[in-house]
Amino acid sequence: MADTDGRDPGPRPPDHGPGAWVPLGAATAVTVLLVTVWPLLNAALPDTEPVRSGQALRVGSEGGYDAALTFERGGWELHPAASTADRSYLFSRGPVELTVRSVVPVEETPPSATELWHGLGRIVRTEDPDARLGDPRPVAADAGAPGLTGPLSGDEDGVAALYPSPDGVFAVQLVLSGPDATPADLAAVEDVVRSIAFSEGGSA
Amino acid sequence: MTEAPREPRGPAPAPQGPHRLPALVGAVVIATACLAGLVLQVVQFTGHIRVFPWAAVLALAFAAATFAFGFWILRRIRPVRAPDPVPSAVAAVWGMTAATGAGIVANGGLSAVWSKLLGLDVTGAWDAALTAPVNEELLKLAGIVLVAVVFPRALRDPVDGFVLGALVGLGFEVSENLVYAFQAVTRAGATDPALAVATTTVVRVGLTGLGSHWAMSAVAGTAVGLLAAARWRPERRRAVLAALLVLLAMGQHWLLDAPLFGEGIAAVLVKVAAVFASTMAVYVLVRRSYRRRMRRALAAEGEAVGMRRSAAVALVTRHGRLRAAQDVARPEQPAVLDRQERMLAAAEDRAALDGT
Q1: Fold held by A49-200
Q2: Of B52, B123, B152, which is closest to A16 when you measure between CB atoms?
């Protein structure tokens, strides 16, 4: 640095020149590794695990109630990577996919089943802009829980159902569909949707 | 003063030539990662924005307000003077786009691994604590390091690392709030999307905001400042201290996410208080050290230009600079402010080499 007035030029700031390659390389490498290693490790593990037939599987727990599904037929598989305990689950059996979501409305007064049905209609449209839920009709689960069911159309046709918990704190949404599933495939396993049962003892 | 004061030297010139190459490459890395992160997030939430436009507008408004307040206050807490706006903005944008986008991919991958290996019940309880402290802290930390490489003058002291780290964390926090807001709409059954957005934002800003990403990354950023101050060639003690700070940031994150002490509001408040208090302890230490070195550096710079020591040292505070400017006639104030700026810049150069 040219010093025109003859004063002490003072300290030079640290120019991070050649030494900066190390932190630059390390920061870039860490970022690239984190977005590649975990997905690759995930891909190396099996995508599904079998669901034992006859087993009741908890799919939601809020307020004073648990909700469980029972898979009477064999051949169902759980996709753990696409599932989160007590919130959302993806099951499949051949070409049929069953998506189960447990939703917890935040309103002080719990919404009606019809309002929950409209909410489900919006949720399915976030994934498929063409998805539409048909008019619902009342349905009762095998264990007696009242709910609504109706047809789903869009990229994938299917069947949707919705069961509020007895205290209205949460509701279970079930969607049966699959890109290659035929109406006959869906009809053959539709009983799993009606297997939903609520029992007391959920997380407060 | 008996002689006319000489002009302060101002900041040392920026490095030229091949020494700028790492900064240029770093800028390309930042730009690429930020763009990729932004595109990924837009693609991920297009469906929610399309179906819940008003809730999305509300979530974005909350995000903008959180960001504006955080950006102002976190720059303001830097002792002596605020960091330059460009590196500050780049730090925040890294957190908002690159770190969040990469976090979605990395967390998705690692959470899936936990779900497969540990089962859904264990993963449901421990996923956040087993995933976020590693992935998110490292992704934010990478951004702080890149900012230090691209803007070597802006991040060359632990206090710079604290502030720019906090800004990376702020950006991450704002984007994560958006992600949680969209998820909350679905989780609440989409019966009242705006209420779901408002509820989750109030919790995440009002309840956990004080001890969240900005606080953790401020601690990790302090480690980057320690290493940058040593030209990335730290002696053993400094390297150990930096590693401990990064571990502290990860530990803070783990504490906040771990399902310990129950899930009630009291437990959350205790955890948030612990994170905030430990971050403030780091802040007090780096602030005190920096102000001490800046007072010394200002005294030396003042001596070089024939300025009284007390007048030179008074420039260390915003209040002191304002008073010095008000002591002269209004037409002379711009020149005084300019001299102050140049003296501060020269003192910062000197303080940067004065041991941290």
Answers
A1: Protein Transport Mog1p; Chain A (3.40.1000)
A2: B152
